[in-house]
Amino acid sequence: MPNIQKNISLKHLNTFHVEAYAQYFVSVRTNEELSSVLKDSTLKKLPKFILGGGSNVLFTKDFKGLIIKISNQGIKLVKETHEHVWLLAAAGENWTTFVHDCIQHQYAGVENLFLIPGSLGAAIVQNAGAYGMETADTVQCVETINRYTGDIKRFLAEECQFSYRSSRFKTKKNPFIITHAVFKLSKKPCFRLDYEPLRQSIPKSDLTLQKIADTIVSIRQSKLPDYRKYPNAGSFFKNPVISVDQFAQLAQSYQHIPHWSYNSGVKIAAAWLIEQCGFKGKRFGNVGVYHKHALVLVNYGHANGKEIKALADHIVQKVIEKFNILLVSEVMIL
Ligand code: EPU
User: Fold this and answer.
1) Model pTM greater than 0.85?
2) Is 275 in the pocket of ligand 1 (CB under 6 A)?
3) pLDDT of residue 86
4) Is-catalytic flag, 111?
5) What is the pLDDT of residues 71-109, one digit of tens each?
6) For a pocket test of ligand 1, which of 235, 238, 323 has the largest count of ligand atoms closer than 8 A to its C-beta?
7) What's the distance, CA 48 to chain centroid?
């Protein structure tokens, strides 16, 4: 049984760096350790929260229950053909370390997702995405342990209910804790250049996985703050999807709204909506909206989670008043 710690500060376990305490905390490195925690009769009764890299969570209060940090490690080649490799990776791996490894080995399929903070398991839970790519694009199957029964269950990608920044593992009642995943990557160079600024930055003659990763680094650094300097959780809100009719109405007053067609509706840039409401670069005491990207809320001082939540609520209110669009947070608020 791994060491169960009591009254542990979560400040350095979340990228907003807000202070909150976990009543109980445990870091698990193997399936066996996780199973023993889940089967323990005294721990069974406690509310539980699964923590990855803490880069998409906002603690607004102490957590009364058990926080389980998934800390297993390992990346293993499990199958190889002429064109593809299948890598089995542990959920506790750092996502960017995994992407870096793939680039070093010339395995294509995750390079646009370089530098997304957080753990590999968390990237799958929320189907992390950036620059025209999503985690779900390369996931073949996901291995889980049921938090109530301890049973191991595998899900094929099509059973994971992946959607924009979500999956079955992000739903409230989900009982499955991700322990591992298998990714299918391409040994042949194939690049995803749908994202305009990425396509423009790299000459076609100069395309390599490393070049893409380098370009992603400079695009990200030009827009997004480093959480070690300006604690944040990346995009705080999802880009909302509205109906074609609502969009047509809105476009009459605002001709330049950044938008994309999405399923049967229209996806709008949340950053643009927030900027139009005058929040970009504004500070409110310890918290604020990053001056280079309006979708990123920043802890500029020693803010607590409630202050960040209050700013998020204020933004939601103003965007509703001005555009009649409801912003939904991408960040998990606890
Ligand atoms: N924009 C503004 N104001 C701003 C920032 C952006 O008007 O302050 C406009 C841009 O001009 C652009 C549009 O909004 O037309 C979209 O901006 P961007 O390309 O930066 O992407 P995003 O939709 O804001 C999404 C993801 C990011 C991901 C980028 C790049 C969501 C919620 N966010 O942001 O993901 O890095 O695309 O692919 O989907 C994250 O999830 O934490 C994250 C950073």
Assistant:
1) yes
2) yes
3) 98
4) no
5) 999 999 999 999 999 999 999 999 999 999 999 999 999
6) 235
7) 20
